[in-house]
Amino acid sequence: MHSVFTSFSPRSARTQTSCRGPRFLTRNFAASVAVGLSLASAQAMAQDAGTAPGASANPSGAANSSVYDLLVGTYTGSGKSQGIYVYRFDTANGTITQLTSAQAVNPSYLVVSRDRQHVYAVNELPGDNGPASQRGGISAFRFDPASGQLIFVNRVSSDGNDPAYLALSPDGRYLLTANYSVASNPGGSFAVFPLEGERVLPSVLTVHHDGNGPVTGRQDNSHVHSTVFSPDGRYLFAQDLGADKLYSYRYTPDGTRGLFGPTESRYTLVKPGSGPRHMVFDEAGKHAYVTTEMNASVLVYDYDDGKLTLKQTLPMTTPGFKGKIGGGAIHFSPDGRFLYATNRGDANEILTYAVDASNGHLKLLNRRSTMGKTPREFAIDPTGRWLIVGNQDSDSVYFFRRDPQTGELASDPKKLEIGSPVDFKFVSPS
What we know:
Layout: E1 3-8, E2 13-18, H1 29-32, H2 39-48, E3 67-74, E4 83-90, E5 95-103, E6 110-112, E7 118-123, E8 137-144, E9 149-157, E10 163-168, E11 174-179, E12 189-196, E13 199-200, E14 205-209, E15 224-229, E16 235-240, E17 245-251, E18 260-269, E19 276-281, E20 287-292, E21 297-304, E22 307-315, E23 327-332, E24 338-343, E25 349-355, E26 362-369, E27 375-380, E28 386-391, E29 396-401, E30 414-417, E31 421-427
Antiparallel strand pairs: 1-2, 1-14, 3-4, 3-31, 4-5, 6-7, 7-8, 8-9, 10-11, 11-12, 12-13, 12-14, 15-16, 16-17, 17-18, 19-20, 20-21, 21-22, 23-24, 24-25, 25-26, 27-28, 28-29, 29-30
């Protein structure tokens, strides 16, 4: 692996490149950042948050409540959206009321702190038509769940192009973004940002991947699409759509081995031309599930101590399908018995899989039209009664009533019109 590791401070930056492997620049890093929570306490913290499988950064609160705040991230380039919207959603009857909105540029992915007091959003720039010299951003907001108010705090550079994903470290000390990067220079990367009080600080580490895949125009360079921590909190997986690799890194916040360092295996290869996009783990931490964007598949892996072993590959499309495809988001139901994934392109579907508890394998149960174009992200409310999916190119969000026992989605969803909706996060207001 050819990687560039860049350590930034507010006043200086230094870069080194090694073709033999990653090299860390951690000048005075251990001294400047105090050692925080142990991994054991970090795991306890994650468990206390009461989060659903594969959704550690979505602190929904107690699932016995029926009323939640629903945060919606959007694209703003068309002028139909202002940024982030907050709604009050009653899962008992499906009533939804807008509370407020906050202006932001292309906040296409959101993450909520575990104390529910802060919201972080990417600013996905420059986009397909922007200059390669323009960097994206990461914005921090103060959040009051009771009123739904968002107050802008600060914004820093994402140290890359087109940030498309956010993840909180298990101990809550760092925020990570995946810079997809449409432009070949600087190319795909992920960056690490310390969190201090209400603010997100400039990145202390940026990791660039060098590589490509066989699909010209889509895989000419690295495209890091997501960064996901393993359930044990010891590893980070970076899904690289451009290189057809699942990169793996050790997370050592005590500084004994650097903050992030490549594992012995460095990466797991996926089928050339498939384009891995998003990953989730089951609650037991024994299996990982990955969507591939370019050939629209779901990959099932056994997981053990930072290692992934492929066990199952399921195509999303029906046999003989000839249209455009685009595997997207993937999430578990709150009870972990069902897995859902979106397929864009001309399919525009959400698929429901049953999870075999004995081995983690999947069985396709059904597929449902998302009633619009380009479903990117979706979310299941903490009670499991509703699945909410946004159609980016139809300016619509549909609320599908869900049967928690069978996983089935009703055929008569409720509709909400929002300009270019992308991401959804539930938060308990109390």
